Amino acid sequence: MSLLNWPVEQIQLSQRARLRRKALALRLLDQFGQGFPDITYELFWESPTVNAQAWRLGPARYVRVYGGLVRHQAITKYGLTLMLAHETGHHLGGLPHDPAMPWMTWQGQADYWAASIAMPQIWGPRACEATLRAAREIVKLHGIIASQIEDDEPDLSPDCRYSILRSGALGQGMPSCALEAFALISDDSPELEE
Question: Is residue 167 one of the residues assigned to a domain?
Answer without folding.
Answer: yes
